[in-house]
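User: Please check token order:
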Amino acid sequence: QIHNASQRLSKAIQATELMKKAAKMLDELKADEAAEQFNEMAQEIREDFQNEYKASLTKERHRRMQTEILNLRRELSKTKRELSEVKQELEKKL
């Protein structure tokens, strides 16, 4: 009887060790899955940030170009006025 009890205890210990190993493997698998999910989320966030950054740069460039166009129009208008004044002065002299 003692021998049978000893064998059952030994098998129970082995089963417990196998369960511990299985639990550890499961935890490692879950950790790997969690790490993979985290990396995927980080990549998505990185891509979203890059897209927003590019969009903001595009908006900033567009704003600068609009400002430059406005400045060029003002300069053109000023030049036209000056040309008109010079033309009037020339007409007076002729």
Observations:
- The chain has a mean pLDDT of 90.
- Residues 1-94 form one domain.
